[in-house]
Design goal:
alpha+beta; 18 strands; Fumarylacetoacetate hydrolase, domain 2; 2 domains; 13 helices; metal ion binding; 394 residues; Fumarylacetoacetase_C_sf; single chain; 11-stranded mixed sheet; FAH; globular; 5-stranded mixed sheet
Length: 394
């Protein structure tokens, strides 16, 4: 199935007032550019802000983005039309993921529902055939509503004590209701893919799913300056076999999708808007299968600012800033094939993650080895910026 590239579809509903940063590939400059997405087109602001991380680090990124005049490189619709790899004209620009030097971090087990599913994965040891029976047993012991339980509280410790006494404790419950959040590195710097391109699944995985999430943009001094959308593609069978396989379950070619654009905070869009966001998910399969899901930040167990504080502090710094996946409450259990096996991807699935104030991120699922290879790294970015020096506006 082709990937939809309609500009009106991917933009935030209140696009007219949004400060949106993106990145594009410019073949004429043989490198990426930081761009402002405006009503009258896409404007290259790299002369003012060579990297997305530098723009995010400005005292007021939204104002800085609006003030940068930039060079108009075309209409958003034209760039979108040229973004899907099938039929792309390599002589014309296309969209990239809207981040560059920021470290890509992710928080896990931040919602009660997904926490229980992680416990089920662990006990099933990656076997989806066992999941239904284990799900019933785990919910009998733990219950289904832990959303009001504050992680690290005395009440949470009591729940832990009860579970330990019944031999039902789990490492996932530890990070779900214990004092310390699970924060891990999702993918290497510059490896994320953007909207309207393929996202990757390890070919050996037979139980996997999308994870629709809000992704915060954070500066080197810990300021939360904006947000975007992400799909934290997850291999449930790999992680279920062993938590030590987390990196293999999470980090494969094209398995980190971020976009379509970073929206910077301003008077009309703040962290409080993020705290109230409902994230929708739609999966359309090539065989006609349709899956709908949702994740509400109002149900998160840890406040976004607390997760950021556990990520950057005196013990851990990020000189170029970082982005942070906030986790998801979405855990698909709808059967796609055999009864009791739940959901898993097939090649060709179209996955759309959406929320009104951030727009829509759409990717087609393929095996990681069949996605575009990741070939442009940090040294290449430095070389491209050095080539560009002196090429800007006269």
């Amino acid at each position: 199935m082709p990937i939809a590239t309609d500009a009106a579809f991917i933009l935030p509903d209140d696009f007219a007032g949004a400060a949106l940063m993106g990145r594009i590939w410019r073949p004429d400059l043989a490198g990426p550019s930081v761009v402002a997405i405006r009503q009258d087109g896409v404007f290259d602001v790299t002369d003012d802000f060579p990297t997305a991380s530098q723009l995010a680090a400005a005292a007021d990124p939204a104002q800085a983005l609006r003030a940068a005049p930039g060079e108009r490189v075309g209409a958003l619709q034209d760039l979108l039309n040229n973004t899907p790899p099938d039929g792309r004209d390599p002589t014309k620009p296309w969209l990239l993921a809207p981040i560059d030097l920021q470290v890509i971090k992710a928080a896990g087990v931040t919602f009660a529902i997904s926490m229980l599913e992680r416990v089920i994965e662990e006990r099933a040891r990656g076997n989806p055939d066992s999941a239904a029976a284990i799900r019933a047993e785990v919910t009998r012991i733990v219950g289904t509503d832990l959303s009001q339980l504050k992680p690290g509280s005395a009440e949470a410790q009591h729940v832990k004590d009860v579970l330990v006494s019944q031999n039902a404790w789990s490492q996932y419950l530890e990070v779900g209701i214990g004092p310390d959040a699970e924060v891990f590195t999702k993918a290497p710097v510059l490896s994320a893919v953007g909207t309207c391109v393929d996202a990757g699944l390890h070919p050996k995985s037979t139980w996997n799913n999308p994870e629709p999430e809000v992704v915060l943009v954070v500066t080197s001094d810990g300021r939360i300056v904006g947000a975007t959308l992400g799909n934290d593609v997850n291999l449930r069978d790999f992680e279920g076999r062993s938590a030590l396989l987390l990196s293999k379950a999470k980090d494969n070619n094209a398995s980190c999708a971020i976009g379509p654009f970073v929206r910077f905070f301003d008077a009309d869009f703040t962290l409080d808007d993020v705290r109230k966001m409902d994230i929708s998910l739609k999966v359309r399969g090539p065989e006609g299968f349709v899956l709908h899901g949702a994740s509400s930040l109002t149900q998160i167990s840890r406040d976004p600012a607390d997760i950021v504080g556990q990520t950057i502090n005196e013990n851990h710094q990020y000189p170029d800033g970082f982005v942070l996946f906030l986790g998801t409450m979405f855990a698909p259990i709808q059967d796609r094939f055999a009864k009791g096996q739940g959901f898993t991807h097939v090649e060709g699935d179209l996955v759309t993650v959406a929320t009104p104030k951030l727009g829509r991120l759409t990717n087609r699922m393929r095996h990681s080895g069949d996605c575009e290879p990741w070939q442009f790294g940090i040294a290449d970015l430095f070389a491209a910026l050095m080539r560009r020096k002196g090429v800007g506006r006269s």
